Amino acid sequence: MSTDTRTLVARRRPRTSRIINGQPLPHPVARVVKGVLLVLVCALVVVPFLGIFATSVAPAEQLARENGFVLWPESFQLEAYRSILTGGVVSRALVISAGVTVVGTALSLFATTLMAYALARPATVGRAPVLTLLLLSMLFAPGMIPTYLIVKQIGLLDSLWALILPSMLSAFNVIVVRSFFQNIPAELIDSAKIDGASEWQIFRMISLPLSKAVLAVIGLFYAVQYWNAFFNALLYLNDSSLWPLQMVLRTYVVNGTNLSPADLGPAEILPPQPALQMAILVISFLPIVCVYPFLQKHFTKGVLTGAVKG
User: Fold this and answer.
1) Residue 23 is inside which H or E element, if any?
2) What pTM was computed for the model?
3) pLDDT digits (tens, 9 = 90+) for 200-217
């Protein structure tokens, strides 16, 4: 090939971008546009949370001046948090929600893992009919009235168990954990059986330790479900002293009912209603926000491995 031909080919060859991790680096303009869009999206997500927190700690004078919503407080006042956390309706509801979430999540994980392991074992008696019923329950959910009648018939009205038992088992979560159990190598289970291990020992010492990722994800799903649930409380609890935090949030924030001194802990001065409402809102989402980052690393591994077989 002559020098002129090589020069012509080099001129016609498209200019490629720098390669990073096997992918071409985008054009600088495209990177700037993506960065600006990412900042805007983050602002849309973060600014409302900042406004909620700022309103909950802003002084009364600033709240009155800015019509009850503040983006940046002039000073930090924690009277609203002291009032709702030192006794009264919110403190009681917070304890109830925490108890229901912990007990409900533990029972749901226990029932889900047991059922998923049984459905994953080929030798389980009645495995196919039970699996069929489980899949049908995902397609044809029971209505509100039949569920209410069952809860009433077994005496769970005005009981905290009404917040746990009706939603203790999720068919979707059982299917996900079952698929994860099925991905455990059969050779590992066979070797345990040769060593004399029972099914319970295999479940407790092999299957569960290998399934920490999916159990963390499913546990978070159940915890968020119990923590955010208010509809069961609205249906089954007539006694307001048994209300979870989300029912208090619905009553005093969504419906706009004012908190009276009798609803709060001992306080010399009643904080402004916007500050009290935003403080309740902060307390309602803060536990999930704190727990989520620690379990985020398990999401991809837990959900994808449990949902895809092969």
Assistant:
1) strand 23-24
2) 0.78
3) 888 888 888 888 888 888
